[in-house]
Amino acid sequence: REVVHIVLNETVFHPQGGGQPSDKGTIGGIQVDKVTLDRSTGVVTHTGIKVDDSSSLPSPGDMIGLKVDACLRRKLSECHTAGHVVDAAMAKCGLCLPPTKGYHFLDGPYVEYRGTIVSSERADVLEKLSRTFTILLEENIPTKIEMMSKIEADRTCNRLAQNFDFSDHPEETVRIVTVANFPCPCGGTHVRSTGELKESRWGIKGIKCKRGVVRIKYDQL
Ligand SMILES: [Zn+2]
């Protein structure tokens, strides 16, 4: 089947980025499997295949309907939001390690931090972290999304171990997302409150420490 790349003047598809996979769905007769954002140009490219080989491709200037796979979007939003809750739980447990990576894909999501937890304490930390994560879901804390100036964003986010650099941010304002009362800059998709993650049974799965990196694995339990 013919692979098609589509660029539109605007889109409802979330491109892959910030550790979150892209949406899937359809654009006209094209099945979209991957959506990428070129950060240097801001161009979003939808890549997919023609469902029906006989259908014609859209031309520049055509109006076209976009359909995002809502079920997948929901799952990805949950997975990504749960990653934020891991950050919040870490801070609440006094584990103020600088975050280095988030992997919010459905095949074994995790969040990584710089640092280590000595092996003799790992079981206790895991227990405490899991309990804290669960409490944050039970508190059903609403997600807050705000646009802030870089100064305000710096003041809001760079407490504890966080050290986000907003100096090279291309726009005047920064999108700050607060999940479980823990703010950070984010362009991802989120559920409305932490309680929604309780219903779908998200939780902490394990801790792995290797070469100065702490990996907290989480998933639907
Ligand atoms: Zn986010």
TrEMBL record:
Gene Ontology CC: one annotated term: chloroplast
- Pfam families, alphabetized: tRNA_SAD (PF07973)
The protein's predominant localisation is plastid
Cofactor(s) named in the record: Zn(2+)
> Where located?
Plastid, Chloroplast
- Show where the Threonyl/alanyl tRNA synthetase SAD domain sits: 174-216
Q: Supply one GO molecular-function term.
A: aminoacyl-tRNA ligase activity
Q: Name one GO biological process term.
A: tRNA aminoacylation
Family that this chain belongs to: Belongs to the class-II aminoacyl-tRNA synthetase family. Alax-L subfamily.
This one is known as Threonyl/alanyl tRNA synthetase SAD domain-containing protein
Originating organism: Leptocylindrus danicus
